[in-house]
């Protein structure tokens, strides 16, 4: 017997024996629920035997037998009632633990988010895919799913989702495509670094979602709750179901602000800001303009993160402002990086190090932000240097720019599409799912080892579109992704180190060196970032015009 913890109140187990009861008492259990009917197997003890042992040990019991595969809504209600009435913690058992886990999942569904339920059951080793619609429906069996059906369903209306929809329409205009996204506003997130430096107005980085959905593409304004890839179905919040022939998954990633203790409470005040949020980027510029002396911290969490250069971009542009207005000598600039290097592709590091020296910034590697007290102007970092015990250090600050920890969205991490780390599991060349042939993924949520940037999505969208249409036509994939990503490192106002690279850190420059040498700070790269890339994003990438993004092709096999 090996109880699997589902929640603080409940653990589940395979069939227990009367002699196991003493061990359950040692483990702290105060009650037992039996979900297995007597006589299901010849070697199975009766509930009466378990009950006698439990009563002798001072444990309460409840007999709620369920025939395998036939959990009714009323059974879940009875289980929930038993959980409320019995003293906890409780052990529930059946033959394998699955029935007990299913009952718990349905009993708590009206109070817990579906992703939390699926995460808890998955961690205990139980797959609730078979009842996911009921979980999403508050634990009740749906009476009318109201299914819609499309040739292609795209999960996510960000840069990747709209771009791939436009690229698909450009290749095969008769495709019936739906984009699933609950957001009203679409953001040009690469612009927020410039907002935080006073270069762009925040309003220029936002447009209504409805104005950007490609013509002829349906927009279903709803969040995804779960996937049923075996049935070619996506379950939406409210338990509506959308069916597909082919699925593209690109909802972006989750900014996990709550992972840093005290951060949510102080964001946007007490000198704590972040260019990773539309409403906070202007506050970054307000802080930079107002700071004349003191300590400024710029944090970077463990990888992977969206645009790995963004945390230091904020530092460079802020320092450049202080340098030019003569206050930099009075400001202690610190880069607090959970990683061990300034930038992951070594060819760009020498140019960056020159700016670290120019701004007299201190590099604090292996420093991961774990807590902040904004009112007290104190932050705590776990310092995890190689072969050294983790040490927690306290650092005072006057201004702190935070890059939050980042993960795949909850509904992705608990889905059948995810790898062990929670990211959508794709072939890194074709971006097709490794298990489900009619599913593709792109953007920040998939697990190919490339930089998570808008420039990467710009390259990936035509590749996914090309390969998906190939599949419709009965051909093998012909477009190959080389891992391209780009990070325009804004080292000062007016100059950028344009990092462009692919898998393994291979340099993949878009221009000859005589036009633009990406390993050096150039004015040309700044003009590209400030004046050229925003219209390329709005007017080309999101409209299926693949400027500088034609997919690399291989011969069909």
Automatic annotation (TrEMBL):
Residues 150-263 form the FAD/NAD(P)-binding domain. Pfam families: BLH_phosphatase, Pyr_redox_2. One of its GO terms (molecular function) is quinone binding. Keywords: FAD, Flavoprotein, Oxidoreductase, Quinone, Transit peptide. The keyword Flavoprotein applies. InterPro entries: BLH_phosphatase-like, FAD/NAD-bd_sf, FAD/NAD-binding_dom, Prot-tyrosine_phosphatase-like, Sulphide_quinone_reductase. Residues 5-109 form the Beta-lactamase hydrolase-like protein phosphatase-like domain. This is Sulfide:quinone oxidoreductase. It comes from Thalassovita litoralis.
């Amino acid at each position: 017997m090996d109880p699997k913890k589902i929640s603080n109140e409940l653990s589940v187990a395979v069939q227990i024996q009367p002699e196991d009861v003493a061990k359950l008492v040692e483990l702290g259990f105060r009650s037992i629920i039996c979900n297995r009917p007597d006589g299901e197997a010849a070697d199975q003890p009766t509930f009466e035997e378990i009950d006698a042992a439990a009563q002798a040990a001072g444990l309460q019991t409840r007999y709620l037998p369920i025939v395998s595969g036939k959990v009714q809504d009323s059974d879940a209600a009875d289980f929930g009632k038993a959980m409320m009435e019995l003293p906890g913690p409780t052990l529930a058992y059946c033959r394998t633990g699955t029935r007990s886990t299913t009952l718990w999942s349905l009993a708590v569904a009206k109070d817990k988010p579906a992703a939390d339920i699926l995460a808890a059951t998955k961690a205990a080793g139980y797959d609730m895919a078979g009842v996911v619609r009921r979980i999403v429906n508050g634990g009740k069996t749906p009476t009318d799913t109201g299914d819609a059906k499309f040739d292609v369903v795209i999960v996510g209306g960000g840069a990747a989702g709209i771009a791939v929809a436009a690229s698909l329409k450009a290749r095969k205009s008769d495709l019936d495509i739906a984009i699933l996204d609950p957001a009203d506003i679409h953001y040009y997130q690469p612009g927020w670094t410039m907002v935080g430096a006073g270069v762009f107005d925040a309003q220029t980085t936002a447009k209504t979602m409805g104005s950007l959905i490609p013509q002829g593409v349906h927009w279903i304004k709803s969040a995804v709750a779960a996937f049923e890839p075996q049935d070619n179905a996506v379950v939406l919040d409210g338990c509506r179901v959308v069916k597909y022939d082919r699925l593209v998954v690109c909802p972006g990633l989750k900014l996990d602000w709550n992972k840093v203790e005290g951060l949510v409470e102080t964001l946007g005040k007490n000198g704590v800001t972040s260019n990773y949020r539309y409403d906070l980027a202007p506050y970054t510029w307000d802080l930079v303009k107002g700071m004349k002396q003191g300590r400024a911290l710029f944090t970077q969490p463990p990888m992977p993160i969206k645009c790995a250069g963004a945390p230091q971009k904020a530092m460079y542009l802020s320092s450049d402002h202080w340098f030019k207005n003569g206050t930099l000598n009075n400001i202690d600039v610190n880069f607090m990086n959970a990683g061990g290097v300034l930038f992951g592709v070594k060819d760009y590091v020498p140019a960056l190090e020159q700016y670290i020296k120019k701004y007299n910034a201190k590099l604090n590697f292996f420093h991961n932000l774990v807590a902040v007290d904004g009112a007290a102007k104190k932050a705590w970092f776990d310092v995890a240097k190689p072969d050294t015990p983790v040490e927690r250090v306290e650092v005072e600050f006057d201004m702190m720019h935070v890059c939050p920890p980042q993960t795949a969205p909850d509904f992705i991490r608990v889905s059948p599409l995810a790898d062990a780390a929670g990211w959508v599991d794709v072939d890194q060349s074709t971006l097709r799912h490794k298990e489900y042939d009619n599913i593709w993924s792109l953007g920040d949520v998939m697990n190919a080892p490339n930089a998570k940037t808008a420039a990467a999505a710009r390259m990936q969208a035509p590749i996914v579109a090309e390969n998906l249409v190939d599949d419709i036509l009965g051909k093998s994939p012909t477009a190959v992704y080389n891992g391209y990503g780009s990070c325009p490192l804004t080292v000062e106002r007016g100059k950028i180190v344009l990092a462009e690279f692919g898998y393994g850190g291979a340099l993949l420059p878009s221009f000859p060196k005589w036009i633009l040498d990406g390993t050096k700070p150039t004015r040309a790269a700044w003009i590209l970032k400030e004046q050229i890339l925003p219209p390329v994003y709005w007017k080309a990438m999101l409209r299926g015009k693949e400027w500088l993004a034609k997919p690399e092709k291989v011969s069909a096999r």
